[in-house]
UniProtKB/TrEMBL annotation:
This is Translation initiation factor 1A. Belongs to the eIF-1A family. Seems to be required for maximal rate of protein biosynthesis. Enhances ribosome dissociation into subunits and stabilizes the binding of the initiator Met-tRNA(I) to 40 S ribosomal subunits. InterPro entries: NA-bd_OB-fold, RNA-binding_domain_S1_IF1, TIF_eIF-1A, TIF_eIF-1A_CS. Residues 1-63 form the S1-like domain. Keywords: Initiation factor, Protein biosynthesis. It holds the Pfam family eIF-1a.
Amino acid sequence: MLCVVVRLLGADHLLIRCQDGVERKARIPGSLRRRMWMREGDIVLAAPWDFKPDRADVVYRYSREELRRLVEKGLVPQELLELAEELA
């Protein structure tokens, strides 16, 4: 699910707003902690937890070039782009 980073919470946790309009607390797994730095306004791919729907794991952070390609294909909703621009 595509999401926007709303706020950095610290201790490898983020507050994200997803495509479905729900704000979730997301954690950055160990494999991404030091490889990908997250900022407010970044578009990320997140996997919501099955047993606790208000939590998620960050799977991937899109770069500017990848995000441009997704927009060209029409895969990113306009409301997510507006929120990302507002937060950045």
